Amino acid sequence: MPDQHPNPHDADDHPVVGVVVVAAGMGTRLGMGRPKALVEIAGATILEHALHGIADWASRRGERLPVVVVGPPGHLDEVGGVLAAMGAAVDGLDAVVVPGGAERADSVAAGLEALPAEVGCVLVHDAARCFTPPEVFGRVVEAVAAGAAGAVPGLAVVDTVKEVAGPGAGGVGERVVGTPDRSGLRAVQTPQAFDRTVLARAHGTPDASTATDDAVLLERLGAPIVLVQGSSAARKITVPEDLRDAGNGSGGPVLVVLTGPPAVGRTTLAGALEASLGMVRVRVDTIEAALHRSGEVPGLAVAGYAVALALAAEHLAAGRSVVADMVDGAPEAREAWAEVAREAGAPLTVVEMTCTDPGLHRARLEARTAAGDFPSGQPQPDWSEGQERAVPSLGAEERERLGVAAHIALDMAVDDPVDGVRQVAAALRRMDPEGRGRVRA
Ligand SMILES: Nc1ccn([C@@H]2O[C@H](COP(=O)(O)OP(=O)(O)OP(=O)(O)O)[C@@H](O)[C@H]2O)c(=O)n1
Ligand SMILES: C[C@](O)(CO)[C@H](O)COP(=O)(O)O
């Protein structure tokens, strides 16, 4: 059977790539009473987050990607519903859904069977590693394109590892019998990439079902596997603590600043972040409106920002993460927010929102004006004034200088608030738990 696949190559002589996403596990250790891939984090299922990551990578490659989603038997309609609801977000993927098996390896084998014949390089990815950055996909594929039979992402083991023996579970009654040298150990992740022919042969070997990853099956055949750099963001969602951490990976309060012109959708996204990640929202427009109602306040905009900054600082100091909803992209304003983040020791995430469809943006602005919704308490800027308030994008140098830990660009002509929440959650998840303010690839 394996040799039925000709492993064809694309125009650049690279093997055609396909993905098997294994999502059929029951999530027993997570204990949410439903298959893990259908559990939600920050307003989207684990499967959606995983597919978004794959679609991001596919769009960077600029190629359509065949994807087999291996779902829990009995929940295939829900899995199909997830794909249908994602719509344009998975436009770069040719996805099909098939039922999984009793063990992970059985699910991989089912997915492999369903991949189109032209696929020569297979990525096997756990849906449960739903925040894996696109770079990791690129690394394993490059290693296989360079001639390896398989490539796995891995991280150095930071704990001392003990080998145990004896009766008992969960550490009860076990005896320590050895301490392997951790310098030679790596904790491996997915996606793992393989030459399709070798992977199919490996899955046809006896006891394949017991394998806890796919690389071990190729190792048994003596096929060369290489290790590439993994990512802390590719951690597997396994137990309830992982679910809690997934929304906010920094372990401490974070400051997320939303910038963008009027009516771009900042307030909707800020509300979604408040609702799904439990952040405190500080909306500059609300403060300005209150100042406006209170009478003549000289320098209303400056006063509004001063109050917003003070409120944000107070919440961060009390350990509460803050989402700041504001228009202003002026250098002084950015410096002031960066200062608040620095003082609080909170990583700063900047989300720059634009709308590349001027017709749509103008319609949103004018609909708001027609509805008499003047967020700052003063008449809405008209279209041309709104355009003048367009926020300049943050350059790499400025990001470095301000200590921006994560920078997200959203185009609200195509992205919706769920995309925004997902990207912010993924960025926070990627942040180094100890080294506040740094983002790992
Ligand atoms: N029969 C199985 C078992 C696991 N998986 C998938 O393999 C990945 C890694 O498995 P794991 O994290 O162990 O998930 P579960 O099997 O769901 O977890 P548990 O053991 O707690 O039930 C997950 O994306 C899971 O959906 C699968 O497709 N089919
Ligand atoms: C394949 C894997 O992700 C590599 O770390 C992992 O082994 C799968 O999870 P499981 O808990 O072993 O099923």
Automatic annotation (TrEMBL):
- SUPFAM superfamilies for the chain: Nucleotide-diphospho-sugar transferases (SSF53448), P-loop containing nucleoside triphosphate hydrolases (SSF52540)
Q: Which InterPro entries match?
A: IspD, IspD/TarI, IspD/TarI_cytidylyltransf_bact, ISPD_synthase_CS, Nucleotide-diphossugar_trans, P-loop_NTPase
Q: Where is this site: Positions MEP for the nucleophilic attack?
A: R182, K236
Region Disordered, annotated ranges: 371-390
- Asked if the Swiss-Prot or TrEMBL record annotates the protein with the keyword Metal-binding, the reply is no
Function recorded in the entry: Catalyzes the formation of 4-diphosphocytidyl-2-C-methyl-D-erythritol from CTP and 2-C-methyl-D-erythritol 4-phosphate (MEP).
Alphabetized HAMAP family for the sequence: IspD (MF_00108)
Q: Which PANTHER family match?
A: 2-C-METHYL-D-ERYTHRITOL 4-PHOSPHATE CYTIDYLYLTRANSFERASE, CHLOROPLASTIC (PTHR32125:SF4)
This one is known as 2-C-methyl-D-erythritol 4-phosphate cytidylyltransferase
Record the organism. Kytococcus aerolatus
Lineage here is: Bacteria, Bacillati, Actinomycetota, Actinomycetes, Micrococcales
Encoding gene per record: ispD
